[in-house]
Every structure is written in structure tokens, then in C-alpha cells.
Amino acid sequence: MYKLEKRDYAKAVKPLQEVGINRLFAESVVRGEAEGEIYADDLARPEVFYVVHPYGMSLLYGSTEKENFNRALRAYLLDEYRVRTADEWLQVYPDAWNGQIRGMLGEKLIHVGEAQPAGTVPAGPCVEIHERVNFAFDRERYLVATAAVVPEEHRLVKTNGALFDQIEGSVVPKHFWRNAAAFEQAGLGYSLLRGAAHVATAFSAYRNERQLEIGIETAEASQGKGYAYLVSQALIDECLRLGLEPVWACRRGNEGSYRLAQKLGFVPTLTLPYYRLTTRV
């Protein structure tokens, strides 16, 4: 696995366009709009790409038959050289990569949710396999969804550079954009405020000429009150006004996101293996 220089990121563009799953987070790295890293099997004529987004997501795509790359990949998946500082969530394309990963990891691939027979859990680092769901936006379903109402003493505002730096949590704009200026120039979001306090935000985790992928964060004290629905609806309305397709994807175990997507008119279309790569201790 060779790390590409940023001047060579263009080599990853055309192969990425052939990836048939949600790839927007990887596109943001490939296009240089988010910090990240890209690894390949060869520096001159790469045929395999491994894109790591700073949020902790990664995408592996391209040829599955490069033996040297696959050996290095196995070492990376199991963090044999202790290069990861945090967990990483990996998606792969095409589906043949799932067979390769099963073969290279064997018993070190743990299916989350399945009972492991006594004595069969291997010692040392493992890779967990979860599920990720891609949704399709159904405009007609959305248009008949219940309209959200801004509660008293709250304000719905566009997310600006000042809010960019204030919003805290796990899924927030500063984890997806280089800085507030970059977000103000190309990003989009709506925030619900109570006084000066942040309540909830729906924002563009990534946006291109045709699509906008939605990220959501609700302050812990305000969760479960429908605020995520409200700000998401405001952002989707803006997407429709601008001619952008709203995009949603989430881990299947995230029941809140999974249910919210369907309330907003999204329809589950594809369930994929989703690998959690842990770090060595």
C-alpha cells in the first residue's frame, strides 16, 4: 500500500465514479475538499484505492487480485504496525472484496450480533462486521410527510461560520469540512437555537453539483424531541429548491437515524457489510 501524493489524487477519480454505492465521503477526499489520505497498489498505474476520510470512514475500491496489496491490506486491517490512532469504519466495492476480506481474516472477522461459540473468539485484534444502509430519496413520500413546526423560544437559522465552530458532538460540520470559510463557501446547513444555545443541526457532510449528503447532530439534552426531524426537513427543502438530491446512509445499528430517514421519505435500498477496524492497545 503506497500513499499517494495529493497531486496524484486525480488518478482515483475515474475509478471512483464506477463505485455503485454511496461514495460521497470518499469523493470529498479525492477532490481535495476534505483532508484525508489515499493509498494505492502502485504509484504509477494504480488499480486499487483505499481512501481514508478524517471522520474515520474509509472506502476500498478497485481490483481485488493484487497480491502484494492484499498482504499489506491484511496487516492494515489488523493494525499490525499500530498505525491507527482511532477506530475506522470501512466500506468496499465491488462485492468481491467481501470475499477477499473473509478469506484473509478467517476467524479474526467477527460478525456482530451473532453469538460466538465458547472458545472460538480469537485472541488479539479482530475486525467486526456490521451493516450499513444506503437510502434512496422518495420525493413523493417526503412531500406528504408531516411538516415540522419551530417550537416557541427557538429559532431556525442557516448554519454559518460562527455556528460551525460552536457546534459540538460526534457528527458536526467541523469533522467534514476544512474550516468555517470552506463550509460557508460550499456547505449548507440549518440549525435550531434556543437563545444562543445550539439545539440541533442538519448540514451537508458533503455536497457536489448534484447531491448533498446529510449529517445531523442534536445536543444531548435535546434528543428525542423531534428536533433532528425539524432541521433535516429545512435542509431537504433547501435541497429541493436548489435541485440537489438529498443523500442518506447510516449504520444499521443506528436505529434513530434509520427510523428518521424513513420518516423523511427515504427508502432503504441497499444493505452492505460495514467493517469496524479497531486499534491495537
TrEMBL record:
Cross-referenced Pfam families: GNAT_acetyltran (PF12746)
Residue ranges of domain N-acetyltransferase in the record: 152-281
Coiled-coil portions: none
Protein name per the record: GNAT family N-acetyltransferase
Organism superkingdom: Bacteria
Signal peptide range: none
Entry's Gene Ontology molecular function annotations: acyltransferase activity, transferring groups other than amino-acyl groups
Organism field: Paenibacillus mellifer
